[in-house]
Design brief:
The chain has 166 residues and is mostly beta strands. Helices cover 2% and strands 50% of the residues.
């Protein structure tokens, strides 16, 4: 029996809404600052922090590329905070998310980012690991620091195959 296939979808704010927010300047509230020399794209994601002594962390992650088709076995979630990823290059990456089904992840969905898109994955949302494509890529990451365990991992009993829709 072959592994179930997950087809990669384009990343849109509407399709991703059950899992968090798409971080992009397109369609965002914006206005000039710094005597008109800078455009501020305002309030692009809902950073969520919970638990004891939470504080926001700003980090840079450097991820190694994955090949498609991708064998998906592991997802994780962060019960005490959201996790935002914004690429520091114009290379695409995959965002894999899954609905919660009574404490375990359901069938995953895979989204391919477009130019100038990142994501903020909502608190307690199942998601795949950082999945850059093409070559090593750096990401600005905003997530939660503080007391408590903010990581839960799940291994699917059988892998899914993530592949292009064409």
């Amino acid at each position: 029996m072959s592994a179930p296939a997950i087809l990669i979808e384009p990343l849109t704010p509407e399709a991703f809404a059950p899992f968090g927010q798409v971080i992009q300047t397109a369609g965002a509230h914006h206005y000039p600052i710094n005597a008109g020399m800078t455009e501020r794209f305002h309030d692009l994601a809902n950073v969520q922090l919970a638990g004891d002594n939470p504080r926001p962390l700003i980090s840079i992650f450097r991820g190694q590329p994955y090949a498609i088709p991708l064998n998906l076995k592991l997802v994780e979630r962060h019960p005490l905070g959201s996790q935002a990823f914004y690429p520091l290059s114009d290379r695409p990456f995959l965002v894999i998310v899954a609905p919660d089904m009574d404490g375990i992840p359901g069938t995953p969905r895979a989204f391919l980012t477009g130019p100038d898109q990142g994501v903020n994955i909502a608190m307690n949302t199942w998601h795949g690991v950082l999945t850059p494509l093409e070559r090593d890529s750096d990401f600005l990451v905003v997530d939660r620091g503080g007391d408590g365990n903010n990581l839960e991992e799940y291994l699917y009993p059988a892998p899914f195959i993530v592949k292009n829709a064409d």
